[in-house]
């Protein structure tokens, strides 16, 4: 088959051109529809527009890619048509060009010389005939220090850094991976340079076949009295290749002991998911609020907290994204600030209502705001957030209560928190004062993980090991919430019970 853009001869069913990087899926789709072998005549290069599958932005980006760069020897420089020259000379050749043949000891721009070479190396210098310097990341101040460079591997086309496909070395190497279309010579690595210790420097030049490896299998190169260490790309593959999938279940019950009374708990949750190119970018908010028992209008207090927080997040984050006011990704500090503002707005609303109506409303709160692979959790009071991963249940939040302080101080045992006569005494909640501190926690998300937000009516009735068993026995988040409520009522249901389970999937 031939490339739909440049006309280069490709292997059958190639997904991307190994010469210009053009996506061949359009030609294959047409060919399959017509029942004919894939063969597209080349378009004259002088007048042909780019014809590729994908969005307009993809076409523009693909058009910017430089053509294939043939591998050059250490003694020469080759230039592909339409691209800027690519220097592939050894270090001393570059230095000679920079300094001039008549002044080998003088460096360009007054750079310090160590031996016959500049310190640090200039851009475009090539180490070991392979690693081309693109720029200096860290320049050592003294000869005993270390220079750090951004480099590209001129032999990177032997193994694709993106998909891992390996290709044999050849006299006509390809730049763009035929499998995934990645620019195999455009991937940057990190090169560390220091003066070699004489006792450690090999007496004979090292070939790549017997080049020693440091810890972590990082190649070490000795050249011109210097030691070079190459750091390969250690970026781990995303646990969410298609984006995060978030599913939420929620349930609340008045409890056995309070039948006929008001449920002073309120819960709320919303998931806004936008998908582009089959990649999901969810924004999820979940909140549990417990109106303080014994206080006037606890039910109204928790309801006001949930509604205020939902309103704030929807207006400041969700709606602007839907209304196309911004395409910028949400930042960690931005989301934490929005969550903090929402909770503070709820606190202000309660304080204002208390002052105007001469009331004493109060409420605990635990809330989670998740975007892509991170969840931000905030709490005030003794409503809790947990994370369940595998067989391990871990509490994220810290109770702002008297018994929590007694347990932390070793005055009472952990098990006593469930029966202590002062277990309902909390010292932080919304509505008490306008200057209220809020605790924040960051939880990195992974596929299969589940988060639980709940009021004290659940965790005081159901111990952590039983919560773990119930959640593991009920993979569906709504079924897990229903089972947790049932277990709390079976244990006595002494308070209002609320649970929100957030399921994280890939």
What is the secondary structure topology, with strand pairs?
Blueprint: H1 25-34, H2 56-63, H3 91-99, E1 112-114, E2 117-119, E3 126-127, E4 131-138, E5 147-153, E6 188-195, E7 213-214, E8 218-223, E9 226-231, E10 245-253, E11 265-276, E12 279-291, H4 298-322, H5 332-357, E13 363-371, E14 374-380, E15 384-389, E16 392-395, H6 402-408, E17 439-444, E18 450-454, H7 456-459, H8 464-473, H9 477-490, E19 497-505
Antiparallel strand pairs: 1-2, 3-4, 4-5, 5-6, 6-9, 7-8, 8-9, 10-19, 11-12, 12-13, 13-14, 14-17, 15-16, 15-18, 18-19
Can you give a write-up of this model?
With 506 residues, the protein is of the alpha+beta class. 22% of the residues lie in helices and 25% in strands. The chain is built from 9 helices and 19 strands. The protein has a 7-stranded antiparallel sheet, with no helix packed on it. The chain has a 5-stranded antiparallel sheet with strand order 10-19-18-15-16. A 5-stranded antiparallel sheet has the order 11-12-13-14-17, with helices on one face. Helix 4 (298-322) packs antiparallel against helix 5 (332-357). The longest helix has 26 residues, at 332-357. 34% of the residues are buried. The model is unreliable at 33-110 and 203-216 (pLDDT under 50).
């Amino acid at each position: 088959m031939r490339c739909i853009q440049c006309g280069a001869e490709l292997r059958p069913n190639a997904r991307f051109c190994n010469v210009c990087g053009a996506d061949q899926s359009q030609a294959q789709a047409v060919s399959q529809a017509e029942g004919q072998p894939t063969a597209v005549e080349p378009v004259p290069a002088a007048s042909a527009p780019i014809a590729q599958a994908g969005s307009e932005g993809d076409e523009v980006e693909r058009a910017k890619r430089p053509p294939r760069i043939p591998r050059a020897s250490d003694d020469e420089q080759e230039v592909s048509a339409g691209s800027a020259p690519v220097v592939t000379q050894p270090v001393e050749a570059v230095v000679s060009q920079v300094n001039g043949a008549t002044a080998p000891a003088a460096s360009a721009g007054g750079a310090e010389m160590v031996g016959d070479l500049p310190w640090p190396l200039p851009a475009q210098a090539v180490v070991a005939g392979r690693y081309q310097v693109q720029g200096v990341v860290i320049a050592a101040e003294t000869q005993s220090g270390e220079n750090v460079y951004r480099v590209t591997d001129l032999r990177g086309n032997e193994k694709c850094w993106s998909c891992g496909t390996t290709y044999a070395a050849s006299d006509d190497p390809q730049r763009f991976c035929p499998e995934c279309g990645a620019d195999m010579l455009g991937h940057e690595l990190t090169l560390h340079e220091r003066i070699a210790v004489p006792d450690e420097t090999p007496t004979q030049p090292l070939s790549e076949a017997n080049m020693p490896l440091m810890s972590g299998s990082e190649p070490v190169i000795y050249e011109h009295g210097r030691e070079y260490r190459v750091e390969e790309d250690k970026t781990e593959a995303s646990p969410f290749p298609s984006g995060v999938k978030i599913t939420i279940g929620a349930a609340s019950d008045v409890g056995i002991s309070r039948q006929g009374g008001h449920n002073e708990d309120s819960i709320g949750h919303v998931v806004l998911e936008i998908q582009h190119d089959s990649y999901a970018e969810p924004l999820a908010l979940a909140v549990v609020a417990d109106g303080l028992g014994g206080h006037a209008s606890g039910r109204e207090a928790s309801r006001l907290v949930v509604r205020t927080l939902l309103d704030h997040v929807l207006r400041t984050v969700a709606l602007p994204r839907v209304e196309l006011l911004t395409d910028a990704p949400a930042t960690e500090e931005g989301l934490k600030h929005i969550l903090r503002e929402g909770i503070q707005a709820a606190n202000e609303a309660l304080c204002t209502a208390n002052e105007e109506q001469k009331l004493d409303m109060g409420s605990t709160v635990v809330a989670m705001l998740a975007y892509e692979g991170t969840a931000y959790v905030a709490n005030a009071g003794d409503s809790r957030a947990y994370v369940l991963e595998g067989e391990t249940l871990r509490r994220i939040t810290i109770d702002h209560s008297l018994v929590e302080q007694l347990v932390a101080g070793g005055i009472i045992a952990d098990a006593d928190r469930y029966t202590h006569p002062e277990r309902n005494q909390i010292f932080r909640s919304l509505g008490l004062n306008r200057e209220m501190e809020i605790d924040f926690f960051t939880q990195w998300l992974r596929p299969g993980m589940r988060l639980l937000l709940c009021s004290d009516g659940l965790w005081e009735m159901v111990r952590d090991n039983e919560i773990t068993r119930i959640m593991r026995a009920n993979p569906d988040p709504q079924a897990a919430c229903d089972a947790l409520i049932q277990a709390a009522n079976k244990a006595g249901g002494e308070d209002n019970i609320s649970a929100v389970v957030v399921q994280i999937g890939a």
